[in-house]
Automatic annotation (TrEMBL):
<dbReference type="GO" id="GO:0005975">
    <property type="term" value="P:carbohydrate metabolic process"/>
</dbReference>
<keyword id="KW-0735">Signal-anchor</keyword>
<keyword id="KW-0256">Endoplasmic reticulum</keyword>
<dbReference type="InterPro" id="IPR050749">
    <property type="entry name" value="Glycosyl_Hydrolase_47"/>
</dbReference>
<feature type="active site">
    <location>
        <position position="576"/>
    </location>
</feature>
<comment type="function">
    <text>Involved in glycoprotein quality control targeting of misfolded glycoproteins for degradation. It primarily trims a single alpha-1,2-linked mannose residue from Man(9)GlcNAc(2) to produce Man(8)GlcNAc(2), but at high enzyme concentrations, as found in the ER quality control compartment (ERQC), it further trims the carbohydrates to Man(5-6)GlcNAc(2).</text>
</comment>
<comment type="pathway">
    <text>Protein modification; protein glycosylation.</text>
</comment>
<dbReference type="InterPro" id="IPR001382">
    <property type="entry name" value="Glyco_hydro_47"/>
</dbReference>
<dbReference type="InterPro" id="IPR036026">
    <property type="entry name" value="Seven-hairpin_glycosidases"/>
</dbReference>
<feature type="signal peptide">
    <location>
        <begin position="1"/>
        <end position="18"/>
    </location>
</feature>
<dbReference type="Pfam" id="PF01532">
    <property type="entry name" value="Glyco_hydro_47"/>
</dbReference>
<keyword id="KW-0812">Transmembrane</keyword>
<feature type="active site" description="Proton donor">
    <location>
        <position position="308"/>
    </location>
</feature>
<keyword id="KW-0326">Glycosidase</keyword>
<protein>
    <recommendedName>
        <fullName>alpha-1,2-Mannosidase</fullName>
        <ecNumber>3.2.1.-</ecNumber>
    </recommendedName>
</protein>
<dbReference type="GO" id="GO:0036503">
    <property type="term" value="P:ERAD pathway"/>
</dbReference>
<dbReference type="InterPro" id="IPR012341">
    <property type="entry name" value="6hp_glycosidase-like_sf"/>
</dbReference>
């Protein structure tokens, strides 16, 4: 098309020139394609011969040429001159336009303009996709360079892409760096959306006193978010999954829509009984009760862990009996309590960790004859209560003996106990290691709670508790940098480690409970400080959920207070922080504790809720894009976590008054014994 136009223009110019030059110029113009005439000599050319003024004499003088051309130009009409100028300009433009590099440049600009116009949603270059197999993998493996090319085309902020590639293999510093990088333009909207979402969540969390909102000329107060109903919803959702995929089994596996067995005793169902009663979920409670009365049997050849089955099953049945008055639960409690008693048949009377409740035999774990200190000293509330209810003293006698022995043992440091005790010798083992986390935690909790349960008469328990707190202050309590958060670390053969388990977050609640029951006011001050720390363990994580273990920074100039190792980034839906928030709110009425709890509940909903029912533990609280579900809903999520949320948000101080009830370490409320006893 362009070429046709060009030829026409040239023709026109030549016509004009012929006219203009007339006698002055002669031309021989041949459009050569002589093929027809002479097949042997094909000539694809245009020849233009301009000769001198009829004389045939060639004058090579430049000046002559310039002058004569100028004269000739002047002789042309205006129309002719304009036509020539137009044609030259046109040829210039055509020449530029057909240059390949220039074409590419302009095409690129056009693409960018189009992308921006479409919000960059449509890819411009359609790649040829490799054929995929059934698992969506390319049938032909891609070369590294192809992979690189595809990665370059992959949409998403650089940080996200890198995180996905390096998942499970990044340090905190790397994550922070990536987060500092500039996101690609087309992701900005999504990122802002997330930020707005987070802000909205924060606003919702503070929605207790909602400002008046003007709408279409009407002023109205937005309804307060019903936090109690939100907890009931969460419970119903968890229960839906359990009922559908794990009914009567120990634990729901919500991702695979299946279940896991530990003891084979309907652990989640029993752990959740009193929660349903407290949350007034009558229908759910009734169907669970029917299962207990018709299906639950402890006459089974199965090994159970003494501590876990005591706090979850015995504790759950006893508290449900107290709340409902239904003797079905007391009978079941007596049955399991009796079946657990063989655990105390040891040379030292320090119980074994495991019991076969069908055979009536007990044993320590396969690899040791040790038991865990927290386990043998956190079964007392339940067995003591069982004795009180049944008037059978054997239960209480067995657990009291354990406490008396531990009270006298060597190997403590300022009231702090080691983590293991030998069932043969009755002595502590692995001396020199002290923690308020795993394997020792509830020893301290039960010292105080037994003292409260028994009417504050058993002074040895109180002494051990007070002494242990001094030991904590002296050996384990430190401040982090830069924000001076108070935390409880660990001691290993005189060496301090700034490591703190999430489990330690029971401590603010226990300290507050002690202060409420008349112990020094400074316990409450420490409780408040530790409560702030436990909240920060959630707030400083990208998901707003705490990891299992944190390490606090103590060096001046640290950037953040909390560091989390790769192996410690999981969250098991544990209750300790929510538990402590409940105590702190009950005793101080400071609404910030409720707001913190509300934030945590929302983050559980955001990152652990499984759409088909249930909640799941997660592997990585630092990755909100992919927290990596573990496919397990622990029974304590229903037994403890959701119950403490509900009690935290309830305005009724008489709902399980802390002057009448003491909660076991699995959140099952047991009555404080009347003083007459
Ligand atoms: C529960 O079984 C109990 O709270 C126990 O004391 C510690 N571990 C879990 C919850 O985290």
């Amino acid at each position: 098309m362009w070429w046709l136009l060009l030829i026409m223009c040239l023709q026109l110019i030549l016509d004009c020139m012929q006219q203009a030059l007339n006698m002055h110029c002669a031309y021989d113009f041949t459009v050569g394609w002589a093929g027809d005439m002479n097949p042997s000599s094909r000539t694809d050319f245009v020849s233009l011969t301009l000769t001198g003024q009829g004389s045939g004499i060639y004058n090579n003088s430049k000046q002559w040429t310039r002058q004569s051309c100028w004269r000739k130009w002047k002789l042309l009409s205006r129309l002719q001159r304009n036509l020539i100028l137009f044609t030259v300009a046109l040829m210039l433009v055509c020449g530029i336009a057909t240059n390949p590099s220039v074409t590419e440049h302009f095409r690129g600009l056009a693409v960018v303009a189009k992308e921006e116009g479409d919000h960059a949603l449509k890819p411009v270059i359609h790649e040829v996709q490799p054929e995929l197999d059934k698992l969506n993998r390319p049938l032909v493996p891609e070369s590294p360079s192809e992979k690189q090319k595809r990665a370059a085309h992959k949409r998403g902020p650089p940080g996200l892409q890198n995180r996905l590639q390096k998942k499970g293999n990044v340090s905190d510093t790397q994550v922070e760096k990536e987060e500092g990088e500039k996101p690609l333009v087309n992701w900005r909207v999504a990122m802002i959306d997330q930020a707005t979402e987070r802000r909205t969540a924060k606003e919702a969390a503070n929605k207790v006193d909602v400002p008046e909102v003007e709408q279409e000329g009407h002023s109205h107060k937005e309804p307060e978010v019903d936090r109690l109903e939100a907890v009931r919803d969460a419970f119903r959702h968890a229960w839906k999954g359990y009922k559908e995929f794990a009914w009567g089994k120990d634990e729901l596996r919500p991702m695979s829509k299946s279940y896991g067995e530990w003891f084979g005793l309907g652990l989640t169902l029993i752990d959740a009984l009193d929660t349903m009663w407290i949350l007034n979920l009558k229908k759910e409670f009734e169907e669970a009760k029917t299962w207990v009365s018709t299906e639950l049997s402890f006459d089974k050849d199965v090994d159970v862990n003494l501590f876990e089955s005591t706090i979850r099953i015995l504790g759950g049945l006893l508290s449900t009996y107290h709340l409902t008055g239904d003797t079905l639960f007391l009978d079941k409690a007596k049955d399991i309590g009796t079946r657990l008693m063989p655990a105390f048949n040891t040379p030292s009377k320090i119980p074994y960790s495991d019991v076969n409740i069908g055979k009536g035999t007990a044993h320590p774990p396969r690899w040791t004859s040790d038991s865990t200190v927290a386990e043998v000293t956190s079964i007392q509330l339940e067995f003591r209560e069982l004795s009180r209810l049944t008037q059978d003293t054997r239960y209480q006698a067995a657990v009291d003996e354990v406490m008396q022995k531990v009270h006298k043992l060597e190997g403590k440091q300022d009231g702090l106990v080691p983590m293991f005790i030998n069932t043969n010798s009755g002595q502590f083992t692995h001396l020199g290691m002290f923690t308020l986390g795993a394997r020792a935690d509830s020893y301290y909790e039960y010292l105080l709670k037994q003292w409260i349960q028994g009417g504050k008469k058993e002074t040895a328990l109180l002494e051990d508790y007070l002494q242990a707190l001094e030991g904590v202050k002296k050996n384990l309590l430190k401040k982090s940098s830069p924000n001076r958060l108070t935390f409880v670390g660990e001691l290993s053969h005189g060496r301090f480690s700034p490591k703190m388990d999430h489990l330690v977050c029971f401590l603010p609640g226990t300290l507050a409970l002690g202060a409420h029951h008349g112990l020094p006011a400074e316990h409450m001050e420490l409780a408040k400080q530790l409560m702030e720390t436990c909240y920060q363990m959630y707030a400083q994580m990208e998901t707003g959920l705490s990891p299992e273990i944190v390490h606090f920074n103590m060096h001046e100039g640290s950037i953040g207070d909390v560091d989390v190792k790769l192996a410690d980034r999981h969250n098991l839906l544990r209750p300790e922080t929510v538990e402590s928030l409940f105590y702190l709110y009950r005793f101080t009425k400071d609404r910030k504790y409720r707001d913190w709890g509300w934030e945590i509940l929302q983050n559980f909903n955001k990152y652990t809720k499984v759409s088909t029912g249930g909640y799941t533990s997660i592997n990585n609280v630092r990755d909100p894009e992919y927290p990596s579900p573990r496919d397990k809903m622990e029974s304590f999520f229903l037994g403890e976590t959701l119950k403490y949320f509900y009690l935290l948000f309830s305005d009724d101080p008489e709902l399980l008054s802390l002057d009448k009830y003491v909660f076991n370490t699995e959140a099952h409320p047991l009555p404080i014994w009347p003083t007459a006893q």
